[in-house]
Automatic annotation (TrEMBL):
Entry protein name: Ribbon-helix-helix domain-containing protein
Region of interest called Disordered, as start-end residue ranges on this chain: 61-91
Lineage, uppermost ranks: Archaea, Methanobacteriati, Methanobacteriota, Stenosarchaea group, Halobacteria
InterPro entries the record matches: Arc_rbn_hlx_hlx, CopG, CopG/NikR_regulator, Ribbon_hlx_hlx
Composition skew (Basic and acidic residues), residue ranges: 66-91
Start and end residues of each Ribbon-helix-helix protein CopG domain: 14-52
Coiled coil regions in record: none
Listed PANTHER family: NICKEL-RESPONSIVE REGULATOR
Pfam assignment, any one: RHH_1
Length: 91
């Protein structure tokens, strides 16, 4: 599994990082299992996630979205225009 992005700039810089032995042991156990070609590739992927994290929704937000969908299915919602009209708000 290669997740190296082709950004047009393929120059690599070497950095030295100290990590606890217990963390290094876990990395050594995981990188191949997860399909990476090398430990370095796995660490680069983790660093990319750190600088550009993917968005995940909390359980509370997912629950709220599900409730909102259910309300819409039961016709318990109104459009923004209708809500403004009901509340007497003019544009």
């Amino acid at each position: 599994m290669s997740t190296d992005a082709n950004t047009g700039d393929d120059r690599m810089e070497k950095i030295n990082v100290r990590v606890p032995k217990s963390l290094l042991d876990r990395i050594d156990e995981e990188w191949e299992r997860r399909g990476y070609a090398s430990k370095s590739e796995a660490i680069r992927d983790a660093l990319r996630d750190w600088v550009d994290p993917s968005v995940t929704l909390s359980e509370e937000t997912l629950s709220d979205l599900a409730e909102s969908r259910e309300q819409a299915e039961r016709d318990e919602t109104v459009s923004a225009d209708e809500a403004r009209e009901r509340l007497g708000l003019d544009d």
